[in-house]
Amino acid sequence: MPTRAGAARDLWGLVEPIHAVVYFAPEPLEEFRAAGYRGFWMGYFAGRAAPLGSAGADVVHALFYNFAHERVGRALPAAWSFAPPDEALEARVRGSVRALRRALGPAADGAEVARAAELATRAARSAPREGRALFAANRSLPVPEEPLARLWQAATLLREHRGDGHVAALVAAGIGGRESHVLHATASGIPRAVYGPARDFDEAEWRARYDALEQRGLLEDGRLSVRGRRLKARIEERTDRLAATAYDALTTGETEELTRLLRPLTHAVVREGDIPLDNPMGLDLRASLDQP
Predict the structure, then answer these.
(1) Residue 291: predicted pLDDT
(2) What is the DSSP string of 97-155?
(3) What is the mean pLDDT of the chain?
(4) Strands 223-224 and 219-220, how do they pair?
(5) Residue 148 and residue 75: Cα distance in Å, rounded?
(6) Are 117 and 151 a contacting pair, CB within 8 Å?
(7) At what angle do helices 85-104 and 147-173 cross, to 10 degrees?
(8) Burial of 8 (0-12, 13-18, 19+ CB in 10 A)
(9) Taking residues 266-270, what's their average pLDDT?
(10) Which residues contact residue 4 at a Cβ distance below 8 angstroms, ignoring those fewer than 6 apart?
(11) What's the rounded mean pLDDT across residues 243-266?
């Protein structure tokens, strides 16, 4: 039986793709464009930052942690002159639900989705808010009535709760947001090319971040050093422990039930093909393609 931290890690692998349709599926992009936002990145930052209100680039850059400040500044606060945060919130839910309906088909209205939404929402809304600003902002939003929308919102809450904890673990380890990409890519084998368009890395910055980690003894010969592996393991273990607090409201049986219910839903979302297998989220999605 997995530990609570292990169960939280397993659930992250199932929750993240359900949330991530908002970034990769065409339907949310259509909704953001219809709301008036210009281009993918303005929609991305408007949609994800909208729970914070009309936030500017400095606040969003700090909370999102790993983007180039210039990228955030090109989208915010300008996005709010095209459409206010309330419209971004509506657009992201509409688009995400449309994307999930396409991926899930008839199962979108099934009892399994309703039960998964119930359990995930209970977990998400019981999670501690202290020190987790992005999670707390999302938790302040009303709970949707439609089960599929409720499931997407719960996945979003659980995802941002884990993300806030991960940022805390990185800060405690002395790993900056930009460095975290280089560290993870080196550890996981994700191609550096993924981070060019996804996180605005050019060769010079990547090399500089790599050199800084190498000088700390964390990287050597294109791989994590022994010290680097230990540090990466501590970051991930601490992230899992912090994320596990979201599931304290569920019994062990309910946590296992939520895992069982989410698995086929997540596999369907991944098989739909909108989310790239090589992505900056840190997840290996290939195993989902082999599931029945």
Answers:
(1) 58
(2) HHHHHHHHGGGGGSHHHHHHHHHHHHHHHHS--TT-HHHHHHHTSPPPSSHHHHHHHHH
(3) 95
(4) antiparallel
(5) 29
(6) yes
(7) 110
(8) buried
(9) 97
(10) 244, 247, 248, 255
(11) 97
Both structure tokens of 172: 């405690």
Tokens of residue 267, six digits: 């596999």
The reply to whether the predicted model has a pTM over 0.90 is: yes
pLDDT reported for residue 285: 81
Q: According to the model, what pLDDT value does residue 287 have?
A: 67
CA distance 141 to 153: 9
Cβ pair 274, 22 in contact under 8 A: no
Per-residue 3-state assignment (H helix, E strand, C coil) for 117-128: HHHHHHHHHHCC
- pLDDT tens digits, one per residue of 190-203: 999 999 999 999 99
Contact 280, 274 (CB under 8 A): no
For residue 77, whether the previous peptide bond is cis, meaning omega lies within 30 degrees of 0, is yes
Identity of the residue numbered 121: T
Count helices and strands in the chain by DSSP H and E runs: 16, 2
Burial string for 114-130 (b: 16+ CB within 10 Å, else e) reads ebbbbbbbebbeebeee
